[in-house]
Design goal:
Two copies of one chain form a homodimer. By secondary structure, chain A is mostly helical. Chain A is 80% helix and 0% strand. The longest helix of chain A has 26 residues, at 47-72. Chain A binds a DNA duplex through α3.
Chain lengths: 210, 210
DNA sequence: GTCTATAGCTGGATAGAC
DNA sequence: GTCTATCCAGCTATAGAC
């Protein structure tokens, strides 16, 4: 990718971070990128196409950066721990709240909807892979729809990123609460064989019920 | 509230639903309301103030409409069931995705941030009240930060509403997965006295560990 | 209170010099 | 490829008629 195209992509992300999706324009992006406004229409067809490209590029980079950590996850608690660390580390750069903003902007432009959908899908696939590795064969997998669970987890994180924008302390507290939920999951995971058998029985019964 | 003010509030919500936060303007709102554009500046100081007022009014109405259902909740599973029903019923009117859109727009305007924060807080308080009623005295309450949990649940629903905008089928699946989680919660809730005692011991240990 | 009209600005987009 | 200059649409906001 040419230098200017890259600057535009970076500038687009910076502009969304600073002004939100409702405050971005060709001019604010060009200013953030330090280049001329007309170049957006030369390199991309318009603002929305640039936003779509930036969204996909940024998400691909972040997902790739966390691939190793996801691969090392060995329990649901560790998965939540990776999510928490990811949130903390990306907060400064705002990479995740950008995705939330673009998701909101997807309401207006169809191509942006396609791009943000694909970007979010990258996170979902990563989470789904981990969940399959962790849960396949476990009692819970009998009733759990793992792809659905992966989507729920990913969507929840998006919501948290938006929430952080209006109440950082509250978002921190919410994240800490998820950690406590993870403790509960770990505890259930560590139940002795008797309790575990009881759990499995009840899960099977629930699964048959529907 | 005068008739025109009410029409403007309704129009603002309709415009956000249709165009997203990035696509609303005094003109699109006035068109949706069927009134003259200048009235926005007469009745409210500008677009952002109208959006803030609409956000608070709509949220207050929806929270009040669900107060009885929240009051009747007697288990975590029932709480999730209310959330699911709420999502289904509000989908057509789009009342919740409007809140998500305005939360995204809060990045741009400080007053809008204050209003959306207050609106989301209404939901959080409702959930928090239910969680206190259900969990106070239960083993899990020893490690759970209930206000944090209420914020996590509320933020997760906001994320789901945004997700619905780009992938309705995926959002449905995510919601169904939460239902399955609720089954798990119910099962743990229904564990026999032996397993329950083991659970409590482990939770206490985890609480001491921090 | 509501309308028309309009000032003044910002935005997307393109033409054309370099 | 990049810049300047510019067109025009749409936006906020106000003035003033009714």
């Amino acid at each position: 990718m040419s230098d200017t195209k890259q600057r535009l992509v970076d500038g687009a992300l910076a502009a969304v971070r600073e002004h939100g999706i409702a405050g971005v324009s060709a001019r604010t992006i060009a200013a953030a990128a330090g280049v001329n406004q007309a170049l957006i229409f030369y390199h991309f067809r318009g603002v929305d196409e640039l936003l779509a490209a930036a969204c996909l590029a940024a998400t691909r980079a972040r997902v790739a950066a966390y691939a190793d950590e996801f691969a090392d996850v060995r329990s649901l608690r560790e998965l939540l721990e990776v999510g928490r660390a990811l949130h903390e580390r990306e907060r400064a750069e705002g990479n995740l709240s950008v995705l939330a903003q673009l998701l909101a902007g997807a309401q207006r432009d169809e191509r942006l909807a396609a791009a943000t959908g694909a970007a979010l899908r990258l996170w979902v696939d990563e989470v789904e892979r981990v969940l399959h590795r962790l849960l396949d064969g476990a009692p819970f997998a009998e009733i759990a729809d793992i792809p659905g669970l992966a989507r729920a987890v990913s969507a929840a994180f998006i919501g948290l990123e938006l929430y952080e924008g209006i109440d950082a302390a509250g978002a921190d507290r919410a994240l800490a609460a998820l950690d406590q939920l993870a403790v509960l999951v770990e505890i259930v995971d560590d139940l002795g064989p008797v309790s575990r058998r009881a759990l499995r029985t009840r899960i099977s019964r629930a699964a048959r019920r529907g």
